[in-house]
Specification:
- The chain is built from 3 helices and 7 strands; from the N terminus they run H-E-H-E-E-E-E-E-E-H.
- The chain is α+β, with helices and mostly antiparallel strands.
- The protein has 2 domains: 33 residues; 113 residues, OB fold (Dihydrolipoamide Acetyltransferase, E2P).
- The longest helix has 29 residues.
Length: 148
């Protein structure tokens, strides 16, 4: 094999290895990608039914129901819509009614969000930017609906 052909073979194998690595990284990124939706978006059927996503808002007052074991039912609201959530596991210490929450899981065919992870805000000043923006938009939409 001539030196020129060796160079071409090395460059071709290097480019091929780089392409394979890029495909593997993009595939891993795509499978771990989780989108955020508000209760209003979930109620409008904008959220996927068969894929994992996050829902955020406030825990509705009076909605927490603790069942046998570690199963907890509660509702997440953005002041415009309410989505029921079921979670089995240990809740964060700061999880409480009227507080900000982000839950990750899937939407069942019955419209109940089955969470496998629940995150509560960590202090009085923090709320995920997406959740804060969603709450503001829902409040504005509610005001506009009442003004009509």
């Amino acid at each position: 094999m001539k030196p020129r052909h060796k160079k071409i073979a090395i460059i071709t194998s290097g480019v091929t290895a780089l392409c394979v690595a890029a495909i593997l990284v993009l595939n891993a990124f795509q499978s771990n990608l989780v989108f955020f939706f508000t209760p209003t978006q979930v109620a409008a059927n904008e959220a996927p039914v068969d894929k994992r996503f996050r829902i955020g808002g406030l825990v509705e007052m009076g909605s927490i129901q603790r069942n046998e074991g570690l199963t907890v039912k509660f509702a997440v609201t953005d002041t415009a819509e309410v989505i029921p959530v079921v979670y089995t596991g240990i809740l964060p210490d700061l999880f409480n009614e009227g507080k900000g929450v982000v839950a990750q899981g899937r939407l069942s065919a019955g419209g109940i969000f089955e969470a496998d992870e629940v995150l509560a805000k960590h202090d009085e000043n923090y709320m995920p930017p997406e959740a804060a923006m969603a709450l503001e938009q829902a409040a504005e939409a509610k005001k506009a609906a009442l003004a009509q």
